[in-house]
Amino acid sequence: MTGYAPDIYNCNVVELTKIHNRAGNITIVQNGDTQPFDIRRVYYLYDVPGGSERGGHAHKALRQMIVAASGAFEVILDDGVNRKIVQLNRPYYGLLIVPGIWREIVNFSSGAICLVLASEKYDANDYIRDYDVFKQMKSIANAGRG
Ligand code: TYD
Fold first, then answer.
1. Residue from 46, 53, 122 to probe ligand 1 pocket by mutation (most atoms less than 8 Å from CB)
2. Most C-beta atoms within 10 A of its C-beta, which of 67, 73, 76, 95?
3. Can you tell me which atom of ligand 1 is nearest the CA of 121?
4. What is the distance between the alpha carbons of residues 45 and 114, in angstroms, rounded to a whole number?
5. Catalytic, out of 18, 41, 57, 135
6. What is the rounded CA–CA span in Å between residue 76 and residue 55?
């Protein structure tokens, strides 16, 4: 049952290096440096209609870092007991999410780009897409932990 016990307090925003230049800024994400896992996959959400939401699911093993590469949105994190909402609106902040957290992304500004840096390649079996199933797994894991 490892992978289900972590809670939302294991998910934090990290500030990434920003190299400022009058011709624009550069932010770097690098294995062994910025995030506590190696990146095996990058995907990004774009052309999301303003105000809409997506991504209600949890992962069994995948770790991820989410960056608002452009625009803004909110990430709702839920560990089955507690919830928190993290607003991302700068390209030099990354939200680290551990496995076993239900996450939804809401309130996209128009033109926002949600960049997801993931520790695993795509695997449909790593997803938990049913919130009731998620809650059940978390309560079993939390009972085993106590
Ligand atoms: P999904 O994860 O369901 O998006 P969201 O939960 O944000 O709505 O992904 C939508 C579709 O894209 C789904 O059919 C799976 C597919 N997909 C891939 O094939 N590879 C990927 O890396 C991702 C993220 C999604």
1. 122
2. 73
3. 22
4. 5
5. 57
6. 10
DSSP string, 11-74: --EEEPPEEEETTEEEE---BTTTBSS---EEEEE-SPPTT--EEEEEESS--EEEEEEES-EE
What confidence tens digit (pLDDT) does each residue in 126-146 have? Answer: 999 999 999 999 988 888 775
pLDDT tops 90 at residue 53: no
Residue 79 CA to ligand 1 center (angstroms) comes to: 21
> Strand, coil or helix: what is 78?
strand
Confidence tier at 1 by pLDDT (50, 70, 90): very low
Query: Across the strands, what pairs with 4?
Result: none
- Flag whether pLDDT at 90 surpasses 50: yes
Task: Determine whether the shortest distance from the Cβ of 9 to ligand 1 is under 6 A.
Answer: no
Q: Which residue has the tokens 């928190």?
A: 84
Three-class DSSP category at 110 = coil
Does the active-site annotation cover 59? no
